[in-house]
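testing teh design pipeline on a random one, pls ignore if ur not involved
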């Protein structure tokens, strides 16, 4: 496999509130973001730290994870 065949990802972290987490994750998913991990931090104002990834355009084979 060539390096150009390996997908490249953009990552970001979002803090979300529990009352709207479903809608916000659905919205992010519609924009191409995939949920990687959720970390619950109950002491925070927005207690769910969500790590997301999105495939960069033009990199990697389709369907390869």
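output:
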């Amino acid at each position: 496999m060539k390096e150009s065949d390996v997908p490249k990802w953009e990552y970001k972290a979002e803090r979300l509130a529990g009352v709207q987490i479903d809608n916000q994750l659905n919205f992010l998913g519609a924009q191409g973001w995939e949920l990687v991990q959720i970390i619950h931090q109950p002491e925070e104002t927005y207690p769910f730290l969500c790590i997301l990834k999105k495939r960069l355009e033009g990199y990697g084979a389709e369907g390869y994870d």
